[in-house]
Design brief:
Number of strands: 18
Shape: globular
Oligomer: single chain
CATH class of one domain: Mainly Alpha
Helix content: 55-70%
Strand order of the largest sheet: 5-4-3-6-7-18-17-14-10-8-9
Largest sheet: 11 strands, mixed
Structural class: alpha/beta
Protein name: CHAT domain-containing protein
Strand content: 5-15%
Length: about 850
């Protein structure tokens, strides 16, 4: 064993090791911190020094080690370490130093109790810590910074704990004071930690938008000062994403942070991340991943001595198993009794841990299983034991309770009560949606109401095909689909940070494109690009509410506006495709057979049209692909429109697709050849876009992006038709210029390369000379353009979220208030695009409505001109 130098000071060395250990712990490097702290303790042990100063340093080392041990070896071990610390502390002589160390020990002891779910017990210790520091701050005449630093930390910890037990007023009080003190004494890091904690409290209180705003504020400081703290924040952000239905985005975020958490061996955070990853998978219907992740989390949490968290992980496992047991809607299937027993025993366990919201959910699961088992009396008894949902109850818990009540009513033969529960649940979900900002959030919430909506649609379909029932089905479809298009956008200020972040994403997009063209490695750039997209999107989430909600359109209102046109609203339920047809003031329902027939033909047609898009394909290849595309188009026509021929005649059509039908270029189908056809996300959206009392824009702008040889002649020809148009050539068509030109214009034509972003539809883009123009940006133009023509590839409504919430470049324009958008539903060659646009604008210049003009243009060569008219025709 090395002999320390004679002039070495063991107490000083141990104090320095404590300083380094605290730094490592603050960066979440707990194993490294533990090694440094143990080395300091060993240094004191070897020295034999037994002064008050050495005892002080030992206690400081032990206090910090207690927290690190809890993170790496389990909370029970951490609590044992605190007990050892208190033994050393008792040897300290009474006085100010002992009071200070006792306060530190109380703070850590309280936090460890918080982590095992013993909140009230922990608060008693932390109250002592707060009282000590408040008194110290009031009395100190020296530099108050160290006292304020400790007080801010303690207030933040207590505020977070109050939030866990729904004491929101106390939580906000503590966290606001912590943040104010940190700002007052120039402690940006402490202010960010308090702000992060305030976000957690607001999330539990049900204010998701405010929570996301606080997370964004904290993330900015963490990124600049201590990036290691971003990992914990990303877990909490993911929980908020799940709350608003963005389970897919939450899953991607957690998949990104879990490797780093595992590398740092942060036990509690790893387990919580796995638990929320399980919840995300549960909402996406991936029950295998849900159970795997929840079991991994449950094992870790049990080993760490965290019974409350372990019980919550067990509840997620139960939810996945219950869904597996409930399965499809086979009336003969009975879930096993042991699953009900497990739900009830878990409910008792959760209640004993004072996790009342989760205990209620376990009772709901037991009741739902009993309904499926045919034990309706027992199910009703269980539901009576479930307390009324509170305002801050998680929305998915509230929707599951509504669903269970509806299923019970249905099992008891009370369809009216079942539909009333569905309607009340969707209305509750709508009130939450009304408070959200950003199209992603608006579209995501439908995930939570999906099963309620499906139940209602299934009930209506089971009641028969009468005209009255067709009208009821129309109403339910409007309540359950494309809710993000049910808002009149309100003007909002542009967030500077969001603008900067989008500019960064634009620059990364250009670098990525250049690297691909040069054949250079792109993995790192792709990661940075995806991370930039996520960061920009998350900044948009904390914006003010997107708009004012409009009432759901009624069949009578739509019929009155249609005139001589016919509206077809497609829907699917239990693998069956159905159409609701509104024509001549009548509403009728037609069952169209298996949905898979139509969706498979739609996918194949889409693939064929993409393959047919390039300008210079060999003629034999064109012939083969065209024959295949025509074959699939005829199949689609037979599945979707021919059964409706007697109803629709030769009328213009307004079509509301569902699922995979959003990629259909309707002009390719024989029934729609030369027929004006408008595609809309919902009848409510169509009614709004076709309102005659809307403000009209003025002027025409023609935009040409780079890399389109055919576009120069295209724009010149269009300029002859629109003599007063504003022209933006390749060099003039920059992002800012194009956005300014779109503001308040009557007609905008943009000829540019476009690309749909499948993982993040609001970052679908048009390529301009200075970078990408994103869908995210066009949706917030102050005065939306009246009509927009996107002479580019596949920028229609290409991504469909649960609840038939279509997203994409065109979708952002429509949701932002544009009346009509012309866009391609698949890839399109430069030459046929230019030719189609010339024909379209010639017809438009003669006064033809957009749907009529486009029908004539597409009919010339439908397979090479896969454009659709979206919005109002």
């Amino acid at each position: 064993m090395p002999v320390p130098p004679q002039n070495a000071d063991p107490v000083r060395d141990a104090r320095e090791l404590h300083r380094k250990g605290k730094l490592a712990a603050s960066a979440n490097h707990y194993p490294a911190a533990s090694r440094l702290l143990r080395k300091g303790i060993a240094r004191l042990d070897a020295s034999g020094v037994n002064s008050v100063e050495s005892l002080e340093v030992r206690v400081r080392l032990l206090i910090t080690l207690s927290f690190c041990v809890a993170e790496t070896r389990g909370l029970e071990e951490g609590l044992n370490q605190i007990a050892v610390t208190r033994e050393s502390l008792s040897a300290m002589p009474p006085g100010a130093l002992r009071d200070e160390l006792e306060s530190l020990a109380n703070g850590v002891h309280g936090v460890l109790l918080f982590r095992v779910g013993r909140i009230w017990e922990g608060i008693r210790y932390v109250d002592l810590d707060v009282a000590y520091h408040e008194a110290k701050l009031a009395q100190t005449t020296d530099d108050p910074t160290p006292v304020v630093n400790s007080l801010v930390t303690t207030l933040s910890n207590r505020g977070n704990a109050f939030g866990e037990i729904y004491q929101f007023d106390k939580a906000v009080r503590d966290l606001n004071r912590a943040a104010e003190l940190a700002v007052q004494y120039d402690m940006p890091m402490r202010a960010a930690i308090a702000t992060h904690a305030l976000g957690n409290v607001l999330l539990r209180a049900g204010d998701v938008t405010a929570a996301l705003r606080r997370y964004g504020e904290a993330a900015k400081t963490f990124q600049e000062v201590e990036p290691g703290l971003l990992l914990r924040l990303r877990i909490d952000q993911a929980e908020a994403m799940i709350a608003v239905g963005l389970a897919d985005e939450a899953g991607r975020q957690l998949d990104a942070v879990l490797p780093d958490l595992r590398a740092q061996r942060v036990g509690q955070d790893i387990a919580e991340a796995e638990m929320f990853r399980a919840i995300a998978a549960l909402h996406e219907g991936d029950l295998i991943t849900a159970q795997r992740m929840a079991k991994a989390a449950q094992r870790k949490l049990a080993q760490r001595g965290s019974p409350a968290w372990a019980a919550i992980a067990s509840l997620i496992i139960l939810r996945a198993r219950a869904l597996c047991a409930i399965g499809t809607h086979r009336p003969t299937h009975r879930p096993p009794a042991r699953l009900v027993e497990r739900a009830l025993s878990l409910a008792a366990e959760l209640a004993a841990l004072k996790l009342h919201e989760h205990a209620a959910l376990a009772h709901v699961l037991a009741a739902r299983l009993e309904v499926r088992r045919g034990n309706t009396d027992r199910a009703a008894e269980l539901l009576r034991s479930v307390p009324k949902s509170r305002r801050f109850s998680p929305i998915d818990h509230r929707m599951l309770l509504r669903l269970c009540r509806a299923e019970l009513a249905l099992a008891q033969g009370n369809q009216r009560a079942a539909l009333a529960q569905a309607q009340a649940g969707l209305a509750e979900l709508g009130r939450m949606r009304d408070q959200l900002g950003g199209l992603e959030l608006l579209s995501g919430t439908s995930l939570h109401g999906r099963e309620l909506g499906e139940l209602a649609v299934r009930l209506v379909l089971a009641a028969g095909d009468s005209p009255a029932n067709a009208k009821r089905l129309f109403t339910w479809l409007e309540r359950t689909r494309a809710q993000m298009y049910r808002y009149d956008p309100v003007e909002s200020t542009v967030d500077a940070a969001l603008g900067e972040r989008i500019a960064e994403v634009r620059q990364l997009s250009r670098l990525l494109l250049r690297a691909r063209l040069d054949g250079a490695p792109t993995a790192e750039l792709e990661q940075r690009y995806a991370a930039g997209q996520r960061a920009a999107m998350q900044l948009g989430w904390s914006a003010s509410p997107w708009g004012k909600p409009r009432p759901v359109a009624t069949a009578d209102e739509v019929a009155a506006r249609l005139g001589d046109r016919a509206l077809i609203s497609f829907a699917s339920c239990d693998e069956e495709l159905v159409a609701v047809v509104v024509v001549d003031g009548r509403v009728r329902m037609v069952r169209l057979g298996a949905v898979e027939v139509a969706t498979e033909a739609a996918r194949k047609l889409h693939a064929d049209l993409n393959a047919l898009a390039p300008d210079h394909l060999p003629p034999p290849l064109v012939e083969v692909i065209s024959a295949s595309a025509c074959r699939e188009a005829r199949k689609l026509d037979a599945a979707l429109l021919r059964p409706l021929a007697d109803m629709i005649g030769d009328r213009e059509l307004v079509v509301v697709p569902t699922g995979a039908l959003y990629v259909v270029p309707w002009g390719v189908l024989p029934t729609c050849a030369s027929r004006p056809t408008t595609v809309v996300p919902s009848a409510t959206a169509w009614l709004s876009s076709s309102r005659v009392d809307r403000d009209h824009g003025s002027g025409v702008v023609l935009v040409r992006g780079p890399g389109l040889a055919a576009a120069q002649g295209e724009i010149e020809r269009l300029a002859v038709l629109h003599r007063d148009a504003k022209l933006l050539g390749v060099e003039e068509a920059r992002v800012v210029s194009v956005l300014e030109a779109l503001d308040g214009v009557e007609l905008a034509h943009i000829a540019a390369h476009g690309e749909h972003e499948p993982e993040n539809a609001l970052f679908s883009r048009l390529e301009l000379v200075d970078g990408a123009l994103f869908a995210h940006e066009v949706g917030r133009v102050r005065r939306p353009p009246e009509r927009v023509v996107l002479a580019a590839c596949e920028l229609a409504l290409n991504r469909v979220r649960p609840g038939d919430e279509p997203l994409g470049f065109a979708g952002a324009l429509l949701a932002g208030g544009a009346r009509t958008v012309i866009a391609a539903s698949s890839k399109v060659g430069d030459q046929p695009s230019a030719a189609a646009m010339a024909d379209f604008h010639r017809a438009l210049a003669t006064g033809a409505p957009p749907a009529v003009a486009l029908a004539e243009a597409v009919a010339v060569d439908p397979l090479r001109r896969p454009f659709v008219c979206l919005g109002s025709g």
